Amino acid sequence: MPSPQLCLEALSALSGCNVESTDRANQLSPQDLINIVALKEFYKQEGFKELEYPSLGTLSLQDVDNQDMYSPPPALTAGSSSSEESVRTTVKIKHEEFFDPPYDYDFTNIKDGSSTFKRGNEQYIRPCGWNRVALRVKNRYDGGDGWLGTGEDAWPVSYQGYNMDGSLGIILIHGGNLHQEPAFLDAAASSLVAEDTRGRGVYSTPDIKMAEKYSKTFKSKVDGKTYQVVLQNRINPEKRIKCQREDVWLIYIPEGSTDIQARAIVQESMRPYGLLLRQV
Questions:
Q1: Phi and psi for 264 in degrees, rounded to 5?
Q2: Which of 76, 38, 46, 79 is nearest to 60 (CA)?
Q3: Is the Cβ–Cβ distance between 30 and 99 less than 8 Å?
Q4: How many CB atoms lie under 10 A from the CB of residue 163?
Q5: More confident site: 271 or 245
Q6: pTM for this predicted structure
Q7: For 121, left (φ over 0), alpha (ψ -120 to 50), or beta?
Q8: Pairing relation of β-strands 18-21 and 90-93?
């Protein structure tokens, strides 16, 4: 399985923070991780440059994709009051409280072929070709762990990538019919410029192939290799909106929601349970 240091690098790449190890209490929980990843993308869509997150302070939404994760932060944009530290906030986690090794699973050499799997009576496309590092989420939520199981009360599986936004899917309020291609394409084209048809909120996908296209890539200082990283989540079926594209799901955040309300919506809608890594 991936080394502890490689996992820290993956968390750093995905969250935009410098994630380090500590023997003390966690500053970041797995739920915080999905909150940060999801809300950073959401607020970038809304045109914000910073995200205020409890216990972590100000997180920059500046795009540092083209930089090495260990290089100096980019110059601040005109008019920004952020310090350099806000570009990459340092966060410390305790491995034994953040990860759950007994539930790690290496899908690297697995091919499911025609085999099918379900979670919560919905298709589960397993992350074949990826190595899953389990996150410690059992017994962390009210109501038990049924959401994490395989039964009827389990939540479906989704994958959270990077830069997944409203341009990926047209929510079902538009007038185009998928089976009437010209009308559907017209509706799709108009949705890209009409804010009310794009769907305001957080996007994810049940398809690992789709997530691959939006994965975060980083070069490791541990072994010098390049990796992709994606979060594997469970998504509350009562909170999810299916887009016209079957491989795009939306957690809707209503206009006018405060930061606290937006964070609460994500927390009750998406729960992470795996950090997926794949060597490029």
A1: -65, -40
A2: 76
A3: no
A4: 16
A5: 271
A6: 0.81
A7: left
A8: parallel
Structure token pair of residue 2: 């991936």
- Which conformational region is residue 161 in: left (phi greater than 0), alpha (psi within -120 to 50 degrees), or beta? beta
Element (H, E) at 98: helix 95-98
| DSSP 3-state of 195 | helix
Alpha carbon distance 278, 239 (integer Å): 30
Instruction: Return d(Cα 85, Cα 88) in angstroms, integer.
Output: 6
Bridge partner residues of 122 (DSSP): 119
d(CA 174, CA 119): 29
Please write the tens of the pLDDT for every residue from 138-188: 999 999 999 999 988 999 999 998 777 655 544 444 334 444 444 444 444
**Which bin fits 79, alpha (ψ -120 to 50), beta or left (φ > 0)?**
left
Residue 89 to residue 9: CA distance in whole angstroms: 14
pLDDT attached to residue 44: 82
Three-state SS sequence of 102-141:
HHCEECCCCCCCCCCCEECCEECCCCCCCEEEEECCCCCC
pLDDT of residue 46: 82
Q: Per the structure block, which two tokens stand in for 25?
A: 């209490």
**Contact between 96 and 179 (Cβ < 8 Å):** no
Is 122 within 8 Å of 101 (Cβ atoms)? no
Half-sphere exposure of 29 (CA within 13 A, CB side): 13
